[in-house]
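Q: I'm building a small set of examples for a reading group on sequence design. Run inverse folding on the following structure and report the sequence directly after it, with nothing in between.
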């Protein structure tokens, strides 16, 4: 398992440009309030949440998410259909100029598939958001409790 994880870490570091993140162009795109829920082992996917803020004058398109703790990170949307809640792929994600996109329980969320190890409450992991034009942004995602509703609610 350890060798498994380190191969992910290696892949992950190669994906990040050496020059860092969007701090090179301050104030256009920001990623805030990342958090995740502790997972129940590794058999089921985990969920992570964050807010992408676009303070620029052009729309910002999100093209992907990556983290070394999961083989695949997929944006999903929770939708109500005939009174039943179900999830579907979120499709194209574009944050209009001056607006924010909030990932939160019951709505848009990130599904972390094929976890390399369980997400333990109190720990954290890196997650990168890739954009069509802007440089990727990597944030540290704190792992809250299994039933947490958000960073504030957990404190
Ligand atoms: Cu989902």
């Amino acid at each position: 398992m350890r060798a498994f994880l380190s191969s992910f870490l290696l892949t992950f570091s190669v994906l990040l440009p050496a020059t860092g993140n969007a701090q090179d162009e301050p104030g256009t795109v920001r990623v805030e309030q990342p958090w995740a829920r502790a997972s129940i082992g590794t058999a089921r996917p985990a969920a992570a949440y964050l807010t992408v803020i676009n303070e620029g004058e052009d729309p910002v398109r999100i093209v992907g998410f990556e983290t070394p703790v999961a083989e695949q990170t997929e944006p999903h949307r929770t939708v109500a259909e005939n009174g039943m809640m179900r999830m579907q792929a979120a499709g194209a994600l574009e944050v209009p100029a001056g607006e924010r996109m909030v990932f939160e329980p019951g709505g848009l969320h990130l599904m972390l598939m094929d976890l390399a190890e369980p997400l333990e409450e109190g720990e954290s992991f890196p997650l990168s958001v890739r954009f069509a034009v802007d440089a990727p942004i990597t944030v540290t995602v704190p792992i809250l409790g299994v039933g947490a509703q958000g960073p504030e609610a957990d404190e």
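Residues 76, 87, 109, 111 surround copper (II) ion (CB under 6 Å).
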